[in-house]
Amino acid sequence: MKTPDKSPLIILGAGFFAQELADLVSDDNAWEVVGFVEGIDRRRCGTELLGLPVHWIDDLDAMKDSCQALCAVGSPARKSFIEAARRQGLTFTTFVHPTAHVSSTTILAEGTIVGPGAVVASYTTLGKHVIVNRGALIGHHSQIEDYATISPGANIAGKTHIGACTYVGMGAVIIDALSVGADCLVAAGAVVVRDVPSGMRVAGVPAREMKKST
Asked: At a CB cut-off of 8 Å and minimum separation 6, what does 192 contact?
């Protein structure tokens, strides 16, 4: 039986995470990376990354009907980059690494990336362009809003709500049934034991608001 051709995929970003995502995608026989997209430094365009072309964000018209995309920008700042690509007509897919486990009852919105060894439990919803990095754990009946980033090894317990554009650092722990608002930063290694209002930066064990420099 003939193996179907791989679907072409273009990666937004041309940095280290873009290279890592291209490597992860190579573990999945469904996709073939055909290029990268730069949105900050146009001088990088016309060169190659991993032997593939780097395109400028405004020059995607010829690719919008043939490729789908993923964004390899680790911070929630990827939102503006993705919106610019969408205005160019690019559409986004989801990617779940073959070694990740995502419950069949979980909902993944477009652009979501689930990295190797990650576990997403039952009846959970991941919004648009969420990144669940390697080894992260997300418990049952949780909701992760658009553009949130869950860093490697973070452990989010069940019935938890993470707001849009929130960044959960490496190895952070959020206990069950809590809410972390939008645009928050949960520092690496923090243990969150109470709700976190939107816009707050927390760190420590237990997590407390980070003092602002004067």
From this structure: 172, 173, 174, 175, 178, 180, 186, 202, 206, 207
* Protein fold of 7-92: Rossmann fold (3.40.50)
Contact yes or no for 155/172 (Cβ under 8 A): yes
Q: Which residues are known to be catalytic?
A: 140
**Region of 74 on the Ramachandran plot (φ > 0 left; ψ -120 to 50 alpha; else beta):** alpha
- pTM for the predicted model, two decimal places: 0.93
94-204 has CATH 2.160.10.10 classification:
yes
Distance CA 4, CA 2 (A): 6
pLDDT digits (tens, 9 = 90+) for 39-67: 988 888 888 999 999 999 998 888 888 89
